[in-house]
Amino acid sequence: MSIKPESGPNLTPRAAPPDVRLGFGQQVGYARVSSLDQNPDRQLDGVAVDRTFTDSASGRSTGRPQLEAMLAFVRDGDTVVVHSMDRLARNLDDLRALVRTLTARGVRVQFVKEQLTFTGEDTALATLLLSVMGAFAEFGLIQGPRSPCSATAARGTPTR
User: Fold this and answer.
1) Is residue 19 one of the residues assigned to a domain?
2) CA-to-CA distance for 81 and 61, rounded, in angstroms?
3) Most Cβ neighbours (<10 Å): which of 20, 51, 100, 109?
């Protein structure tokens, strides 16, 4: 015995409006580059994300429209994936506030470079790691090693 679906005007499937998101658990990427000649694609290279928001602004700039768009977009169950802490926030206070805001809404925050993920159910140790690693990121202490030549060139000191 087969059951045929009823037909009628109320049972006709309709496409969802384009702004309606279906399901939970999207991987949402956020990237920020400081200058136009930097490539934001390198920040999340090899990381599977459903959607990426990219700002081109210095870390000190308060105008980050794509960050605001990403904050408005994410929902409970999503994960925000960022290359590193210094790409998400301007300073330690900003970092803690953003992570706290997102995790309070049920959004996980994952930092690829630091290999840390924050869920809102974090331990005291996780909170400490966020503060310590965030402070290192703010002062540029977790970036790759710089050669002495590039440091002296930046100061305008001639090298030997």
Assistant:
1) no
2) 21
3) 109
Burial class (CB in 10 A: 0-12, 13-18, 19+), 75: middle
User: Could you give the dihedral angle defined by the CA atoms of residues 151, 36, 89 and 52, in that order, rounded to the nearest 10 degrees?
Assistant: -140
Which domain does 78 fall in, by range?
27-141
First to last CA, the chain: 90
Counted domains in the chain: 1
| pLDDT tens-digit series, residues 39-56 | 777 888 889 999 999 988
Residue 47 lies in a domain: yes
Residues involved in catalysis: 34
Taking only the tens place, the pLDDT of each residue in 114-155 is 899 999 887 888 788 888 888 877 777 555 433 343 344 444
Write the CB contacts of 56 (distance below 8 Å, at least 6 apart in sequence): 32, 33, 34, 35, 36, 40
